[in-house]
Amino acid sequence: MRANPGGQIAAEEVIGRDPLIERLWRVLSRQSVLLTAERRVGKTSVLKKMQKECPQGTLIFYRDLEGVRTPLEFVQKVLEDVDGNLSGGDRGKSRARALMKSLGGFELGSIIKFPASAEPDWKALLDATIEDLATFQKQRVLFFWDEIPLMLFNLKERYSEELAMDVLDSLRALRQHHPSVRMVFTGSIGLHNVLSSLKRGGYANAPVNDMFSVDVPALSDRDARTLALRLVQGEELTPADPDELAAHIATAVDRFPFYIHHIVDGLTEKDEHSAAAVDAIITDRLTDAQDPWHLRHYEERITTYYEGPIVPIAFAVLDRLATADGLSFAELRNAVDAQIATTEKQDVHDTLDLLKRDHYLTQHPQDGTYAFRVPIIRRWWRFNRGL
Fold first, then answer.
1. Whole-structure pTM over 0.85, yes or no?
2. Sheet hosting strand 140-146, strand order edge to edge
């Protein structure tokens, strides 16, 4: 098994996710899923493994929606997936194809295109596409939609909050009307960030309360060590004790598969394959101005997706916890007040809740103190902010 930093991991090389996948299949037998996860924890690999190994009688469509910026683009991708799995006879009876042609849509190989004039009819096209699916497919159908929060954010920014609301409501209505169809939403920003903005704009619905939330954790210690050891062996590294080196790699990067692959890949360029070499690679990556691990995302998403008084409070909280983990609410409130002239207690509460939901922070179950959830991100935050 070779290191593959940032690349697509083959299904058979996804380590330690079988129990999670079994749980997801169990949930999907009854309802749709909202898959939450920190970046780099391997959620896309989980979805790809499920798609590759899906049970008989199940059809999965996987799409990365990050680049989608119009509702018609989204419907086009759904239609391409569904239409591509219809028989020739069923295509002749397809409501969606008939509507597509009436709106001036056309095909380029497996790609479907629409003129801009068809934009107002996106909802009718989506309804017809899912109706075709329910009519002609006798299998259970799953839509795996990665980065759907980014798509909704794009729609809100380009068009309006009302349009993003309309898309969410339409998807919920389709889930309710077609019980054989399941949807899995996931993304590198939490859907709650988009929903919070929509609610401030007057959106009162609960468009995902019919979906079951499942969190993708880091690997267990045993599985992280197994992954690291297999990569060390696959790259033919020569540590004094391979098991000891694998254990150090797993712990040093908090059991995140993405970083484990990167560390082992970095070791292939070193003459010494030791714990000291691992630590040197980590320090280099955390301080590299080119940001090879794309860690600035943790700072940028606050300024992009958080709004109002939350932004300065979030920075104040994270700055304080970067230098002193395990602080109480009162201690963090004092730290915020020392930097920001006037803050409301509820604003600090709301900010801490948001930072927990976005996987920045964790809260101790007994004493209620707060800390960075991922130590390596805390370390980067300290370096990046000069703390």
1. yes
2. 58-64, 140-146, 181-186, 33-37, 212-216
